[in-house]
Design goal:
Number of domains: 2
CATH topology of the largest domain: Helix Hairpins
Number of strands: 4
Shape: elongated
Strand order of the largest sheet: 1-2
Strand content: under 5%
Oligomer: single chain
Mean pLDDT: 76
Length: 294
């Protein structure tokens, strides 16, 4: 609550400043409009008394009906001015102030809840990594990463923080890359968690993300051009940026297998007996299962 009020201090201060300016301006207007009237000499004798009257009766709505009846009797312009002031201060500015406080408190509560969830997820993942960290170096390597993804509690925590496990497997090479695109053998736990949380589905894209995407596309285009030139020259193409082969193999092992389909037919078509199983072609990617119809 204290943090929410501190965060809303600037917005609340601006709203109160707007209210003070409105009270001062309307106090001058009432003082000039009601000069010489009974209610003017009683409630609006000078600017300070007029401001007090407006705050108590117009903003806090204390016995506002009594002063409205008195204004209606003594001065129609003053009656209209009071309606305008009540609409501006009590209805608009005060409700705006309440809305600011509610919005800030909600935002702070969401941020605190998010921080607690991320902290809990980090603790669970760190415990799982520590349990499988044989050398106790405080870093995570490829084998520890894939072993961690096999644990049910880790999958549950990743789901709670909106990180898709399959997407995480596909982006394993990105996690273990540095800013220059060089694949690292190990990552400190702090850097790993920072990169892991960047893959959350509800993250909002920023300018930094667009710049990183531009760098990645440029780097990949250069790498593909290098491979094409090497193949045209009949040269051996080494793994890009020193990427270990086991990283790609592990990602391919955890990736889902493509679906298979069965091909069957019956009767005769174009001189071929239907009911016989047609031979699959390599480019079809189909598995032939007798007796099944796709």
């Amino acid at each position: 609550m204290v943090k929410a009020v501190a965060s809303a201090f600037r917005s609340v201060g601006l709203a109160l400043l707007l209210l003070g300016i409105s009270v001062y301006v309307f106090a001058i207007a009432f003082r000039m409009t009601l000069d010489g009237t009974p209610i003017g000499m009683d409630k609006f004798a000078n600017c300070a008394i007029a401001m007090h009257t407006l705050i108590m009766h117009g903003t806090f709505l204390d016995a506002v009906s009594d002063i409205m009846e008195a204004l209606l009797t003594d001065s129609i312009p003053g009656f209209i001015l009071m309606y305008a002031f009540v609409t501006l201060s009590a209805v608009t500015i005060m409700n705006m102030l309440i809305g600011i406080l509610c919005e800030v408190i909600t935002a702070v509560a969401d941020a605190e809840r998010e921080a607690l969830q991320v902290s809990y997820s980090s603790e669970v993942i760190q415990e799982c990594i520590s349990a499988s960290d044989n050398n106790n170096d405080g870093c995570i390597d490829l084998n520890e990463f894939h072993g961690m993804l096999q644990l049910p509690q880790v999958r549950k925590v990743l789901h709670e923080v909106d990180v898709d496990v399959q997407t995480l497997v596909n982006f394993a090479d990105v996690l273990f890359e540095d800013d220059n695109g060089i694949t690292q053998q190990k990552l400190p736990f702090g850097d790993f968690m920072q990169k892991l949380l960047q893959l959350r589905g509800k993250n909002t894209a920023t300018v930094k993300d667009l710049v990183d995407l531009r760098k990645w596309i440029s780097r990949e285009m250069k790498e593909q051009n290098r491979k094409l030139r090497a193949r045209e020259n009949g040269e051996h193409v080494p793994p890009e940026n020193g990427e270990p082969q086991e990283l790609r193999q592990k990602s391919e092992e955890l990736a889902p297998a493509p679906p298979t389909r069965a091909i069957a037919s019956s009767g005769w078509t174009n001189g071929t007996q239907r009911g016989a199983i047609s031979a699959p072609r390599p480019e079809d990617g189909f598995a032939v299962v007798p007796g099944q119809v796709p």
